[in-house]
Amino acid sequence: MEHMIEKLTELESNVRTYSRAFPVVFCKARGAEIYSVDGRRYIDFLAGAGALNYGHNHPALKESIIEYFLGDNIVHSLDLWTAAKYAYLDTFDRLILKARGLDYKVHLTGPTGTNAVEAAIRLARKIKKRSTIVSFTNGFHGITMGSLALTGNAKFRSAAGLPSVGNAFMPFDNYFGKGVDTLRYFKKCLSDCSSGLDYPAAVIVEVVQGEGGINVASPAWLQELETVCRDQDILLIIDDIQAGCGRTGRFFSFEHAGVVPDLVTNSKSLSGFGLPFSQVLIRPEHDQWEAGEYNGTFRGNNAAMITGAKALEYFWSDDAFADEVRRKGEIVREGFLGLIDLLRYRQVEAEERGLGLMRGIDVQSGALATKITAEAFRQGLIIETSGHSGQVIKCLCPLVTTGDQIEEAMQILRSSIDNVLG
Amino acid sequence: MEHMIEKLTELESNVRTYSRAFPVVFCKARGAEIYSVDGRRYIDFLAGAGALNYGHNHPALKESIIEYFLGDNIVHSLDLWTAAKYAYLDTFDRLILKARGLDYKVHLTGPTGTNAVEAAIRLARKIKKRSTIVSFTNGFHGITMGSLALTGNAKFRSAAGLPSVGNAFMPFDNYFGKGVDTLRYFKKCLSDCSSGLDYPAAVIVEVVQGEGGINVASPAWLQELETVCRDQDILLIIDDIQAGCGRTGRFFSFEHAGVVPDLVTNSKSLSGFGLPFSQVLIRPEHDQWEAGEYNGTFRGNNAAMITGAKALEYFWSDDAFADEVRRKGEIVREGFLGLIDLLRYRQVEAEERGLGLMRGIDVQSGALATKITAEAFRQGLIIETSGHSGQVIKCLCPLVTTGDQIEEAMQILRSSIDNVLG
Amino acid sequence: MEHMIEKLTELESNVRTYSRAFPVVFCKARGAEIYSVDGRRYIDFLAGAGALNYGHNHPALKESIIEYFLGDNIVHSLDLWTAAKYAYLDTFDRLILKARGLDYKVHLTGPTGTNAVEAAIRLARKIKKRSTIVSFTNGFHGITMGSLALTGNAKFRSAAGLPSVGNAFMPFDNYFGKGVDTLRYFKKCLSDCSSGLDYPAAVIVEVVQGEGGINVASPAWLQELETVCRDQDILLIIDDIQAGCGRTGRFFSFEHAGVVPDLVTNSKSLSGFGLPFSQVLIRPEHDQWEAGEYNGTFRGNNAAMITGAKALEYFWSDDAFADEVRRKGEIVREGFLGLIDLLRYRQVEAEERGLGLMRGIDVQSGALATKITAEAFRQGLIIETSGHSGQVIKCLCPLVTTGDQIEEAMQILRSSIDNVLG
Amino acid sequence: MEHMIEKLTELESNVRTYSRAFPVVFCKARGAEIYSVDGRRYIDFLAGAGALNYGHNHPALKESIIEYFLGDNIVHSLDLWTAAKYAYLDTFDRLILKARGLDYKVHLTGPTGTNAVEAAIRLARKIKKRSTIVSFTNGFHGITMGSLALTGNAKFRSAAGLPSVGNAFMPFDNYFGKGVDTLRYFKKCLSDCSSGLDYPAAVIVEVVQGEGGINVASPAWLQELETVCRDQDILLIIDDIQAGCGRTGRFFSFEHAGVVPDLVTNSKSLSGFGLPFSQVLIRPEHDQWEAGEYNGTFRGNNAAMITGAKALEYFWSDDAFADEVRRKGEIVREGFLGLIDLLRYRQVEAEERGLGLMRGIDVQSGALATKITAEAFRQGLIIETSGHSGQVIKCLCPLVTTGDQIEEAMQILRSSIDNVLG
């Protein structure tokens, strides 16, 4: 492995990220477990930062894609109609949309999250003929120039070499702590024509901010935001890229609040198998695209549509899977509350946050969080940090992680905290 | 098929493009042939607009990816080090870079072309601490906001809802016809501090403009452009997304001119199998990224790296394949010259252009080009148009298209011209 | 007069503003009184929106400028050194700066407020090598593109046809009512690197927002803002264009709070005589301009420097004038409080606000304020409205307005309220 | 004078420009002559860079303004209607517009050139609902952010700290030397929807580029530009700030070509007396401003309107003055041709350019031009350089300069060239 690491370091750009925190070479993986080339086993609570909700190499999905390839079915075809696209769209419409009483048209964008976000905000600007999109503190929506303007992270923003255009930030729920109504500022700015807020085309928001540090918008706050948007002729875009596909214990994260966005962005686990795939859901009355007005070579990845359709059938034909996710979310939550007791015993103030299996422990210090996750890695658990200063230990374990694996991970975290603070 | 079309039309956003010109549902494909669900066979000269240089479902690539999946190897892992990444980078370095005396570090960006372009221009801005990137008339570099500023197409630009920032356009080679030195304008603007051109960080250029209408930059023009960049402290970025991976009869399109760009963007056929995959090649002295300064969920698609490495071994271990591409390019060229005779006989002025198997016939009229390609589709050939008004019939057939298939395509085009103009 | 009005209406662009609310042709004026061509006398509480602090045609200033012209002294000379410039700068330094223990270099910009603001923010960007300038809700800083980005007013912003670049708005003091600490949001955004606030080069703020509706920043708020700027390496720019030159009862409005800005913009009454004139005051360590980096034909209006120097000598050689302004401010305040009693008696909730002779009555309704000021005009008082919806009756009477004139104006307002609400 | 210089250097910002090339303190001036405080006489061929076409302190203008002030007429009144405004607009309409068969409404903007330019381009954007304004290489239109985007000069542009938005540069007439049709590029970009040129709202152009180095657009080129604009639904804005008010031997510089712009900007000598004053002329059908959509404190400077109206009556009641300017222009031209012979004799290649009394000698080297003008100043002639590298000695002498003064200036230039090159 040493030789491989040397070579990889030499050949790959300095921009590489995760191989710095987890500097081994991986090869095999299944479910919530991943193996390095020297045979070491790790529990994977990073899981593609939300791209592997169904775990690595799920057998049913794997079978579907291999069968598809064996049959010389179409892998790439720009945005031509294919049997795979038909299967995916029909399944998605049936099992996800109709089952929830939702009505959306699907824009199969380039297969990355930022492509979907750029498509959504462009459509919003076109519909409303206004240029401003409102996003929220600690939001993350991607880093191509259009999405970056909506992303709070200063590291990416300052690396862009250009100032932002067409954006405005508002405070997310609880940004000033419990009890401060952050939508008040937004409403005041909208009602005051000298507030400096250019009247927005749309609001884009995450129900749970993943990169931002597992900040959960309350149902009441989301409902109020929806009301503001409806009343003020502003589109509501929910970026469900990280929190979607069951992560929070519902297929869409916004189901908890019962809001119905005008546009929704999906990606990450949408293919189910870790393949690049993205889409924008568009309320039919908003599908004001002209033909070909937004394009890209890899929109509508057929392989991803095959595994995506299979994942929907396998996991979303009834409510059992979602129920299970919420149940496991409770288990992780209780585990984390135990860790918080431990941290407090060690004089570290900490907070548990999350929804479903998107959970985090805010230890208030990026340095401490890094020490704990580094120690956890040494002990065989891959788990990352998030938040503005990396102060939140962030669990995005596969939704198929077993109870034993969760228990093992909790023990590693407990031991890591002990080792770091002891 | 009718039911499928009805359902697809209902479920998919109006933004869909290719299913309008080719309104059937496809299912199977191999090499240069593709089949609709009603069993009809088509020759595919669209071929993913350059994403399928090795044809559909190449057996060697298919085998490699199936084997990889069967072994429970890692499909998705953000940008962690994997055995697949090692295999890809090592193979790319050995068979492509070292074999050409090139020295680049590889930035595995999000898997779409526009992601790679955004990464390249951001790095250029960071290196040079200047905001302007120069691109060229009829250039196409993607449509996320950063790339869109460099893309000439008015349809995409006007749909953006925001004015461009940080860009400047210069005339491409032969923009005013043969004999006008278009770099003179660029050089004059650089030398005149009141020209209005903000001193650029970089130039981004395609050796053959694909979307722009198969416009080929001459080696002399490219060499002069490289000299200007070197002399004036400007980075040279070659966007080889559509013209790269052997399309022009060399792996990199810029090999014809012998220039050595500072940064190169690759995508489209880089995976060999039609899977989303992109990279930026960075001269080592320019690899000034800080860790994690540019990110994205699907950077370094492992499945694509497996087929990508296999494609390099299969096609690029020696010069035979490239030689064959250039030979077939001559065949297509001669076929096109025959079509031009036919067009002229029908009183239509036309021009043949191209490099290797990236070729087009400019029939001067988008309406005529559309009629011809529509008729060709009726006769079983999928071929698209490009250029500012869609006036160029554009051949991007798989590089593995057989002589018989080329002959058949030419006959269809001949017959289509006859039918349209007869 | 009817013929003149007809002709003026025909010849002047529709953009004209004040001639709509006050549709007569004026000719003569002295002190706080102004006459229409048909001989009608008006009390002028508009007074050039702060440009006529010393009243119309003050005899001492008039004499100085006539004498200057009679002597064939230099009227225009770009930014060459002149005896007039020497006299002005020396007087300003002596009577205003040194007398207050202040140390600034003077940048004589183009003679409009927005020119000064553009110069100040450009210098701030240059010094800090950052692009963002923070301004505040309801702030007004001019409407050329650079200043407009910092101006809250939606009417001007939306007329620009371009989105803003390089700006961020924060809530002004009391924006959410008394008791809400609005700087908390700014401080939180600065401390949170994912807040979306690009780290600013500078803050620009008015001590009393004139166009914004006579909103007064408290000394404590300004001191806290100064502390934030000092601690966070951000420049503090005070835009004293409307509130400066004695309007608030001190020469600079920020004297009340004891803060010392890095940059100050002055204009409006700086010439004392209503002539166009502006400047930026720059702390010596920040005077990082290169020669000629900011220019303009009319910077350093010699005629304005003559009257400007004279005004300083006449009004600012000791504290008597400022004391008098504060005393009159109290008289206006008491008059306004009486009007508020009257309004409340008529069931209209209203609030009095202001500092020195920059005062307003917020009647909560733009329609009502317009009715009252229209009736006042009918009765011989010129007074305008301001605020986001024009809901504030705004007194910017000349500082030399006599007690009798103030009394007359109050009676007109009282009678106007009675007539409108009776 | 030494003490004054010391004090001025201490008090004034480093940004000061002209006092560096001409480092004396001036006090009196009349016609084309200006005096320093130590009694030295200079011939002034700088003349406010075009702001003093009628010379310093013209007796008739001086008398009119003194009389106005003595009568306690209104000096400042925002944009209220005044007798002065009536007199100015009526005179301008009668003597300038109607006399030339022109029909424009007048927008009295803030009194600087850049204010007028910002108003013109904002109106153009509003009318056409497009954001791009096309300007030309070496153009100068002011340096507030909106105008700066249209100004070629790199020194100002790079000092802005923000990239430009909403602009595009095209090559000015003769930019590539005689015989190259520079409008071809513009026309090609307009006709090619993938050229990268966002379809413009307007073109803004100077008939003679003053700051750009006395570059004269030929009548044919301007007529062709007008045709392009008319045919393509683009507004034509002529920025006549430096070349207008008789400078070229016609009141408007565009009269030579017979074009009729949609919008015209005037400033500089518009007041006749060196007072700040600007306007935009708007074809009636384009006067689509809403009331108050563009504002500013000093729009419609009454004092400037008095001298402006007087100047129109005095100089523009018949053709005699314009004839005289053209005659003197010929004298300067011949003098300059003599200087060119002298320069060539000294082995310096040089070119004479200009229209009317806006003339220059291009000596190809900024260093040489600076040496010559510095020596000329030593000998009593104030004359500046312009052009991208300051390579053009630029004559903008008052239009009232006498034959003797011109002769004296020519002798000084001749002697300066001898001394510098001898």
Automatic annotation (TrEMBL), chains A, B, C, D:
MF annotations from Gene Ontology: diaminobutyrate-2-oxoglutarate transaminase activity; diaminobutyrate-pyruvate transaminase activity; pyridoxal phosphate binding
Family annotation (CDD domains): OAT_like
Listed PROSITE patterns: AA_TRANSFER_CLASS_3
Name used for this protein in its record: Diaminobutyrate--2-oxoglutarate transaminase
Species whose genome carries this gene: Paraburkholderia piptadeniae
GO BP term, example: ectoine biosynthetic process
TM regions (residue ranges): none
Entries under Pfam families matching the protein: Aminotran_3
Keywords: Aminotransferase, Pyridoxal phosphate, Transferase
Enzyme class: transferase
Pathway: Amine and polyamine biosynthesis; ectoine biosynthesis; L-ectoine from L-aspartate 4-semialdehyde: step 1/3
Cofactor dependence: pyridoxal 5'-phosphate
Gene3D superfamilies linked: Aspartate Aminotransferase, domain 1, Type I PLP-dependent aspartate aminotransferase-like (Major domain)
SUPFAM superfamilies with a match to the protein in the record: PLP-dependent transferases
E.C. number(s) listed in UniProt: 2.6.1.76
